[in-house]
Amino acid sequence: MIPKAVVLVRSTADESVRTVTADGAGRYLVQPLAAGSFEVSVIAPGFADRVITAMVGAGEQVRADVTLEIGGLTEMVQVVPDRIVSSAEAARRIPGSIDVLDLALLEHSRFATTAEVLRKASGVHVREEEGLGLRPNIGIRGLNPNRSSRVLLLEDGIPLTYAPYGDNAAYYHPPVERFERVELLKGSGQIAYGPMTVGGVINYVTPAPPAHARGSFVASVGNRGYLNTHGGWGTTLGSTGVQVDLMRKQGDGARENISSEVYDVSAKAVSRLSDRHVVTVRGSYFGEESNLTYSGLREAEYRENPRQNPFRNDFFYVDRYGASATHTFTVARNVVATTNIYHSRFQRNWWRQSSNSGQRPNDAGDPACGGMVNLHTTCGNEGRLRSYSVWGVEPRLRAVTRVGGMGSETDLGVRAHFEDQERRQENGANPTARSGVLVENNNRRNQAYAAFVQNRFIMGSLSVTPGVRVERVLYERTNRLLSVSGETELTEIIPGLGAAFSASPRHTFFAGVHRGFTPPRTEDVISNSTGGTIDLAPERSWNYEAGLRSELFQGVRVEAAFFRMDYENQVIPASVAGGIGAALTNGGETLHQGMEVSVRTDSIAWRDAAAGNFYTRLAYTWLPVAEFAGNRFSNISGSPTVRVTGNRLPYAPKNLLTAAAGYTSGRGWDVNLEAVLIDDQFGDDLNTVTPTPDGQRGLLSGFTLWNTTVNYPVRTHMVFVAVKNVFDRTEIVDRSRGIMPTAPRTVQAGIKVRF
Question: pTM score > 0.70 for this model?
Fold first, then answer.
């Protein structure tokens, strides 16, 4: 093996990890180890990463020789199309901030929602909604988290949301339990994806089929009706491997009259047709039935009972089918072509009596309602009925060569993407109606064509990566009720430049600048009444960052980055008071600037493994500047025109912190304590402090939530107890549609069985 190579030995039984460094002769020793199966990963600068499996019997000493191949050319043959970060070697060359969350290593925290996972990455603000984490609202570096609309979400490198060009609102989010890792890319490398290139890219990676038959089953129960069962199994027969996952989750939400039941089924097959051809096929189904309202609380309602919900007849139904196929073709030893084909169908029906706290109840079209006293008898409802169909094809090519003594890694690709939206609204005559008078019947279509090329020039320890992306989007909208239609289009060029310098195998400096872009929604660029074009520009910004990835000392890893997002035009809701207006408008200039830091320490790196591992994890975001710039005026309906230049942006906390500390014993039991801090936020552009009666404006005071978990191994299984929001804090997390509170304290216990 290579001298000074880093060796990571992970137990497949309890997921514990040991790290050692090979000596000058390339030898390494890991002791003591309990009997079982271990994955041995070896990382060395200039070489492709390698992973092997080793079996250790009781009292047995095992020799595990690992042969590394020179990186670069051989790395191409090992391209992992599901991932943004294919290897540790590739990560060192990425000119931007990266977070890779290995969910197996985070398992000791017993995360139950996507928000719990993403908060462990710096720069990320996640606002929960109904209390079960089914629709996380994700914001990055001070961007408004509402519906995750300014974040590009991928699954295995393929667009995840149902209309990333025409309506990038995440009313659906797959359960995080079925992924093996989460990748976050926030720098200039975003131009290889798109269309959103402002805040960041989040890629959820599903597990690859194992080499041998292996499975697990997790069952957990808790208060508030919580029950979560999740099972996965996979194997490889000959040249084909399969992985299947099934999950069912149910529980009560953060307020009364809110409960959810979801099902998720997914399958993945990987077949090596030859040494040069690999085909991956994926399929999934997600179903949800929730007793769920859209409206938050008014100020008086919150003070009376922050957990109340008067709309017990509001229901939300979802069905989502997805399928994709990936063909990886090794054209030559240094050239790999990958083609993704994908399709999904998403349908959601939301029957509700109120859409925000200004409707008590919504009786504009229901004069027989007679007010809240008749809410559950004569008052009608609205059915917001949506159906989306998406499909696309995306070929990519990666080539590694040498030019004039320099290494050169070229990535290029094109994508054709098509979306079809069917949007209807029917107003029902009573609280439980499931049909009614048709008041909206829209079809919205998008065709999007994109191409990108970027080239990484490698000059020893320095790599420089210029690149450019081009997006062309065609919009069409038809209002069938008025027999009105219209169309428009836009084209955007998105350049980027980044650099990374590896001062040593343990220290990498990076910097980059790139164009930020977010396309407008179809409904905001074509008039519903006339079919004419609305003058709404796309979001554009210049994004800058510079930082460091470092193993400061053995067992101490740090990533820090300074960032600046300088918006020329940030698109905002026509009613900034809470976003209850359907239309969006040009908001003008804004500025986001700050720092983010991630720190990880593990005592096992310098202590005897028998003594266990004391560990800490920290993700901190400091955002001193998140403000309106230029000549800006308030857009709040009913308020006088007020200049808001210099005011803080809504939902952009100055400080975010997730800090955890724990201990894993040599025998595998683990205890963990975590604190999550979210600083003060404003709910509107006027930076209103005193709450308004409808609850949609006012200060959202900062708070800290505490979580703790205990895990204890029983043979090859693991039993656990987790307490979230230990002190049962009730705080305001959102005012956009009225007041939404934090989830109450939950206590969950369960077992993970491996077979």
Answer: yes
